[in-house]
Design goal:
Elements (H helix, E strand, L loop, with lengths): L2 H5 L32 E7 L4 H17 L3 E7 L5 H10 L6 E2 L6 H6 L8 H10 L2 H6 L1 E2 L2 E2 L2 E13 H6 L9 H11 L1 E2 L5 E7 L5 H14 L17 H15 L9 H4 L5 E7 L2 H9 L6 E4 L12 E10 L6 H12 L2 E2 L4 E2 H8 L7 H8 L8 H5 L4 E3 L6 H16 L5 H17 L3
Parallel strand pairs: 1-2, 1-3, 8-9, 11-14
Antiparallel strand pairs: 3-11, 4-5, 6-9, 6-10, 6-11, 7-8, 12-13
Helix pairs in contact: 9-10, 9-17, 10-18, 17-18
Length: 438
């Protein structure tokens, strides 16, 4: 495994749950009765399965277990790529965990499947009061809140200051014309036409990479992927056309090479700029070592000077399973973890957990207290973006809609579809997918 591949562990985790637990015939974890001498045991299923993430979650769970006699919490984990399947398979086998940590994109699907329980009024009030609008929106469906936001990821522009300066670009681009100019100046190829330096990183690595950077640009242009009611796509619009034209232009001029894995190329100094989420900061530091000082972060460029900033927000939530026998106790644990303030800086345990692994929560006040003056300045643009980020659409069918959008984006990048064809194809297929689920 290369150093770059190890850096991806923030999103791609080793499998930690035995496959037997996914079968209908396995025994559910013992939950207890809550009587004296027989405590309630709540199970928490997440994707924090290895390394620093596993320890970061286990530490507060151990603290809870050491200070609470009647209710105990047991953690289980799977790698992220298996998480949604695990939720649905275990639910069908009546073995769902009491507390689950889904990607917010899946909230609508899990609500429709009867997996997630709405947050009680007192918890809803706490969540609305304590978190940014983007974080609350990501954890809500149809105006109802379904859990405490945990990590909240906003998107911004990573750039290599050394590559920009060498190309005569004095500062990171603020507008799309400046982005195009900087990308063309910084791109480099060898005499055989092979890409040495990608000016602007467009990558087909996975859904979140391909679609996340496109939706961040779409939001910056004032557009949206789906309609407000979640029943149709809204990408076939002037804003959507502008984004697709921008990406098509960058690829056709050679400033972007979608076949390049940006997660490996950027740390190696082979990509000048790329749009990605704040979680990546924690991976870049150990990967790049001293070269990390060349990395800067700036807001996602907007089409024209003076346009209002906007970007994409994604995240995860901790919610309670409808099948849990002990919902009141589960919500109380979540309040303790996500809302109770502790320590010298008076922040929540979840906020401290996320910052310890180089991530953020949607609690802006906690983030400012934890980052302080000595925090990584590259995290601050992501924190600032909490004020204007747009949550990722999470209606029923959102995961499939995202996959369909990725297919058409990649067809555009590879020349298989024109801008008009990619927009029409996305609209037709996504409309068909989301409309049938209502």
């Amino acid at each position: 495994m290369t150093r770059s591949q190890r850096g991806l562990n923030r999103r791609h985790f080793a499998l930690a749950l035995p496959s037997a637990l996914l079968t209908a015939g396995c025994a559910a974890p013992r939950q207890g009765t809550g009587r004296p001498g027989d405590p309630i045991v709540l199970t928490l299923l997440s994707h924090y399965s290895s390394g620093v993430l596993k320890k970061a979650l286990q530490d507060p769970v151990d603290e809870w277990n050491a200070t609470h006699d009647r209710v105990k919490v047991r953690t289980k984990a799977v790698e992220f790529t298996d998480l949604l399947t695990t939720f649905t398979v275990r639910q069908a086998a009546e073995q769902g965990a009491d507390i689950i940590q889904p990607y917010c994109l899946w909230t609508g699907q899990l609500v429709r499947a009867g997996v997630l329980r709405p947050a009680p009024p007192e918890h809803t009030a706490e969540i609305r009061r304590g978190y940014s609008a983007a974080a609350v929106g990501a954890a809500s469906v149809g105006g109802r809140v379904y859990g405490y936001p945990t990590e909240t990821q906003t998107y911004a522009l990573y750039y290599n200051a050394r590559l920009l300066c060498a190309a005569g670009v004095p500062r990171p681009p603020r507008t799309w014309p400046e982005l195009t100019d900087a990308a063309e100046r910084t791109m480099r190829r060898d005499r055989y036409g092979n890409t040495l330096v990608q000016g602007f990183g467009l990558s087909s690595y996975d859904d979140s990479t391909t679609v996340g950077q496109t939706l961040a640009l779409l939001n910056a242009a004032g557009g949206t992927f789906v309609s407000a009611d979640g029943r149709s796509t809204a990408i076939d619009s002037p804003a959507g056309r502008a984004v697709f034209e921008l990406e098509h232009r960058l690829v056709s001029k050679g400033a972007s090479a979608p076949g390049v894995n940006v997660y490996q190329a950027f740390p190696a100094g082979q990509v000048a700029m790329v749009i990605s989420a704040g979680w990546w900061t924690g991976s870049l530091k150990p990967l790049m070592g001293a070269d990390y000082r060349e990395v800067g972060v700036a807001p996602v460029p907007v089409p024209r000077a003076g346009d209002r900033p906007a970007t994409l927000a994604t995240g995860f939530l901790l919610g309670v399973n409808t099948a849990s026998r002990f919902p009141r106790e589960a919500w109380e644990f979540l309040r303790w973890l996500n809302a109770e303030r502790t320590g010298a800086k008076g922040v929540t345990r979840m906020s401290a957990l996320q910052v310890s692994v180089g991530s953020l929560t949607g609690r802006a006040d906690d983030m400012r207290a934890l980052l302080g003056r000595d925090g990584d300045p590259n995290l601050r643009p992501f924190l600032d973006a909490l004020a204007y980020a747009v949550p990722e659409p999470n209606m029923p069918g959102a995961q499939q809609a995202k996959t369909l959008l990725r297919t058409h984006i990649e067809a555009l990048w590879t020349g298989q579809q024109s801008v008009a064809e990619a927009l029409r194809g996305t609209r037709r297929q996504v409309d068909q997918e989301v409309s049938r689920l209502w």
